[in-house]
Amino acid sequence: METEIRSEAFRKFAEAAAGIMNPELRSWKEEGRGVVGFFCSTVPEELFIAAGLLPFRMRGTGSTSTELSDAYFSPINCSFPRHAFNQALRGEYDFLDGLVCINSCDHVRRIYDNWIRALKTPFVQVMSLPRKVGEPQIDWYTDELKILRGQLEEHFGVRLTDERIREAIQLQNRIRGLQKQLYLLRKAERPPITGAETLAVMVAGTAMPKQRYQELLTELLAELEGRRGSRDYRARLMILGGELDDPAYLEIIEQQGGLIVTDSSCFGSRLMWRPVDEAEPDPIRALARYYVRDRPSCPRMYGDQPRRIAFTREMAREFRVEGIIGERLLFCDQWVVENYMTGLDLEEDGIPFLALDREYVLSGEGQLRTRIQAFLEQLEAREG
Amino acid sequence: MARIVGGVDVGSATGKAVVMADGEIIGSHLIGATPRPQETARLVMEGAIERAGLPGIDRLDHVVCTGYGRLKVPFAQENVSEISCHARGAHWMAPSTRTVVDIGGQDCKVISISDKGTVLNFAMNDRCAAGTGRFFEAMARALCCGLEGISALENQSEEPCVISNQCSVFAESEVVTLVNEGVELPRIIAGINASVASRLTSMVRRVGLVKELVLTGGCSKNQGLARALAAKLEIAIEDLPEDPQIAGAVGAALIAAEKARG
């Protein structure tokens, strides 16, 4: 990606986000240590960390076609699982020692069924995430996490004590805190980091050893201290959406002059805006509560739209957002309905909203540029 | 001396150019698109310049370009999106306009506009040719009736067939099936127009229908479609007093005039 940030730490983050394998991950594997892939930000990375494993958030980065996976899926399945599974069938995920799938949505959940038939990953599990966000669902997810803990202990031959899980929660919370610090820098009139660059930093956090990531992020924060970014932008924007791991998509928006200052997305603020409760005596229950209810909500959860729009509004106010873009992967049933409601709610607040459909692999750049340009013109016409 | 300005709209199917002076159109032109957008832009603007009785493009004080080829026009000082341009152009042609439905070669869009002609909100077709000029071209090909045949009011049966597929490719197969079943042409044509009108209706509802609603873009000349859309939205859709296909170029010229004034 194009960047003005001269930083070795940032270069490593951009490199990790631009592919699946990266040097930090490679060294980890060379030390003989295990990596477990997982789909969806509701899978608790803390359990893998506590087991001494490196959690790797599954992506389809670098994919150019779905010719292998389309035998298993159809062209009207979401392009994210199709590209991610295609990369797996090509052997790009052969480094995995395990994989945890989840029913984040029906397209992604079906990867599990195909994966166990087509690939030889030694440890593959599928979890059941509840749909509602009340106490009974927290109980349910607590049970699910206990099952996963048992499976990890048995397969990898480790003891997942409460103490170890607590340490993993503390480490993840420290990382969340640093990532939030990075976001808070973007409240400035001239943020030191763009939206595309921030996304690269966030994606890298799901692809490299956590301790190493924490060191590099601390380094980057120190380097960004006092840095003033370009003021040459036409509007401050916020991105709303689900699986978005491609900084190039945001780069196109920013090249048109729309500076992305914050988001509610699942490689973005929803990963880290709030910490896991460290005071809760049972760390497994703390994780269940966090992933089911306490973190910013995702549209897959039932009856939770009021909390989501409240979060969007809070973010928009705090970051002085002038316009919001809701991106959605084509065929996603969760986000299409969500975006329509968001548009209506934001109209009440007088915040212009643009809903965009996209494919997982960047395409139709001309159409995208037209929409962004028109949206920025719309925002400027309001001022004038 | 009056400022002379130009607007050029390099679309996917056609190029349109307008020359304006003192807020009036003094020349306009329309051509089929060439594979080179800069070439389309130059040819169409030279045509408009000639009709305006001017010596050459360099006589223009300011030029704004729009459309898919807008980044490739060397004689334009700036580019503006076709959404803003259609809004301005339609508003200039009919100031009571509050909703613009622009149906072009590969895009259809619904634009909600203010009483000043600025964009309040818009929706566009994404990742799909349904409801665009390309769709009508495919249907005209399947029916061997030409675009005029699809448009002609005498071809709009009161009993349209149901064309359920929005996808151009599948809709074409559906139409071929109907042809082979011996269904009469006007029922199929009315069905095609009704299916596009239905897609546009949902886009209009998404943006919010505020009257008056006008049609712009090449496909707005499809009378069958205009009638089907008016029926579905339960409103009257008046024809614009100027060629609706040049609305984007007119909007670009109006913006050029503003910029020229400084």
List keywords for this structure.
heterodimer; A: 384 residues; alpha/beta; Rossmann fold; four-stranded parallel sheet; 14 helices; 8 strands; 11% strand; globular; B: 262 residues; Nucleotidyltransferase, domain 5; 2 domains; five-stranded mixed sheet; four-stranded mixed sheet; 20% strand
Can you put this structure into words, describing what you see?
The complex is a heterodimer of chains A (384) and B (262). Chain A is an alpha/beta fold. Chain A has a domain of 139 residues: Rossmann fold (3-Layer(aba) Sandwich). In chain A, the strands form two sheets. Chain A has a four-stranded parallel β-sheet, with helices on both faces. In chain A, strands 6-5-7-8 form a four-stranded parallel β-sheet, sandwiched between helices. In chain A, helix 8 runs antiparallel to helix 10. The mean pLDDT of chain A is 96. Chain B folds into two domains: 99 residues, ATPase, nucleotide binding domain (Nucleotidyltransferase, domain 5), CATH 3.30.420; 144 residues, ATPase, nucleotide binding domain (Nucleotidyltransferase, domain 5). In chain B, 40% of the residues lie in helices and 20% in strands. The interface between A and B is medium-sized, with 19 and 18 residues.
Total helical elements of chain A: 14
Beta strand count of chain A: 8
**Which whole number gives the mean pLDDT of chain B?**
93
Main sheet overview of chain B: 5 strands, mixed
* Strand arrangement, major sheet of chain B: 3-2-1-4-5
Secondary-structure element string of chain A: HHEHEHEHEHHHHEHEHHEHEH
Helix content class of chain A = 40-55%
* CATH structural architecture of the largest domain in chain B: 2-Layer Sandwich
- Radius of gyration of chain B using CA atoms only: 19 Å
The beta-strand count of chain B equals 9
Order of helices and strands of chain B: EEEHEEHEEEHHHHEHH
Structural class of chain B: alpha/beta
At the third CATH level, what is the topology name of the domain at 22-160 in chain A?
A: Rossmann fold
Silhouette of chain A? globular
